Amino acid sequence: MIEDVSKIDDATEHPKIGIFGLGIMGGAIAKNLVDDGYQVFGYDPDAVQCQNAQNAGIKIIGSVKEVAENSHIMFSSLPNADALDTNVSELITLSESERSAGILIELSTLDLATKQKNQARLVDAGFDLLDCPISGTGQQAKTRDIVLFASGNQSVFSNCSSIFKSFAKNSYYLGDFGNGTKMKLIANLLVAIHNVATAEAVTLAKRSGLNMEQFYEVISSSPCSSKIFELRAPLMIDNNYEPATMKLDVWQKDMQLIREFANNAKSPIPLFTTTEPLYQAAIDADLGQQDTAAVCNLLNAN
Fold first, then answer.
1. CATH of the domain at 199
2. DSSP type of residue 291
3. d(Cα 104, Cα 122) in Å, to the nearest integer?
4. Cα–Cα distance measured from residue 237 to residue 296, given in angstroms and rounded to the nearest whole number
5. Which of 47, 64, 115, 287 is 20 to 30 Å from 83 by CA-CA measure?
6. Model confidence pLDDT, tens digit, residues 12-65
7. CB atoms within 10 A of CB 186
């Protein structure tokens, strides 16, 4: 296991990086790492994502095992808990002589129980796992405008911090494993609320006859703005929700995770609860492949 990656990350040599999941987020992170001089090996069962990643300079390989063989540090950006379970099941079969990698940085937004279960499995097999979900959209990932919520082994976090700077504007160490996921779910609760609040504001501005370009400029520069307003209001103003920065179909999974997390904590979430029917209505209206900003369409229809 490579416990101190800083020893190989100097002016002449970068650690080799492996990435599981080359979708909107994983693909953008992989490209930024390549652009910063890292050799990146990627694995994804989706042929289209693999082709896009290959065009960006990522070396595509055919299995979880090959990623572990060819890299020093592994990242995973996965769509669901089953994908993480499957990858971990393959990793833990490998002996130390069969792999170069001993660290997995888990970037996905998944339920806490799944991450904790797989941490235990990986530790038993001699790996380190960091829980490091990302705050930000795929579009923000392209410009390195994302934030990492990291938790787990602090030494591993510190040793990987130079790598994080290649694709994230900030990375925060939050302590015990799982605190990253807790922070991400709370952040997503705010995203859910701010997105609907933005849709309400845009709809009201349009119906009241304001100049929409001026409306956006003034609100964006005022204390009442939010990052979500700044990202999503232009989509709502233009009524253009593709390509999606976060698809409603994917967001539906995150909404469920927030609900389960809050229920387990026995914490009231009245504003979040108010947003749930609007997101569900957007799914029911076959808007699932559009950006979450498309909830504005439902308000415009009323």
1. 1.10.1040.10
2. B
3. 9
4. 9
5. 287
6. 368 999 999 999 899 999 999 999 999 999 999 999 999 999 999 999 999 999
7. 16
Find out whether 130 and 137 touch, Cβ atoms under 8 Å: no
Domain count for the chain: 2
Which residues form the domain of 194?
A: 185-300
Asked if 128 and 69 sit in the same domain, the reply is yes
Q: Is 150 helix (H, G, I), strand (E, B) or coil?
A: strand
- Are the C-beta atoms of 289 and 248 separated by less than 8 Å? yes
Q: Are strands 128-131 and 103-106 parallel, antiparallel or unpaired?
A: parallel
Beta bridge partners of 212: none
Residue 205 CB partners (closer than 8 Å, separation 6+): 212, 215
What distance in Å separates the CA atoms of residue 284 and residue 164, rounded to the nearest whole number? 38
> For 236, what's the count of Cα atoms within 13 Å in the CB-facing half-sphere?
30
Strand 134-135 to 128-131 pairing: unpaired
| pLDDT one-digit tens code per residue, 202-218 | 999 999 999 999 999 99
Decide: helix, strand or coil at residue 113: helix
Residues 168 and 192 in one domain: no
